[in-house]
Design a protein that fits this description.
This protein is α+β, with helices and mostly antiparallel strands. It has a single domain, classed as 3-Layer(aba) Sandwich (Aminopeptidase). About 25% of the residues lie in helices and about 30% in strands. It is built from 4 helices and 8 strands. It starts with 12 loop residues before the first strand and ends with a strand. The N terminus is likely disordered.
Amino acid sequence: MTNDGSSQVNAEIRTGRLDLVPLRVEHAAEMAEVLADPALHAFIGGTPYAPDELAARYRRLVAGSPDPDVRWLNWVIRLRETGELAGTVQATVTAADATAEIAWVVGTPWQGRGIASEAARGLVEWLRTQPVRTVVAHVHPEHHASAKVAASAGLTATGELHDGEVRWQLLLHSR
């Protein structure tokens, strides 16, 4: 048991076609290729990480949040049929307000196949088993594909803007 009462900090999640596998530093080399397209940064800014930069980032993520009230949960998206990695999903869970902020990214070659939507739905379903009351995502107002992913996962646009992005939200059953 973790100190917040959840049985697993970061479990593998299975969906119809995908395995959401807890992030490991060893994923960095393959994920650097998956995330190499600069177009993936059109709405979030920045540039793709080199493999060694991504490994350093993954080391920080895997080590966990320095704040004991916050859990960083990160998965790679593995296509079960081929074993390929296709993207990531993540949740930052804050115990104080029982909120999970989620995000996703799918590499350009795998876009348009419903992978991000399926992964986000799987993540939200798993979050229902955790001490989480509210799921939140922030989506750039012009990123229509990401808005569709949020809606597919059950989130609704609130109309609130945070750093230029629309806040999407889903209230889970109370605990």
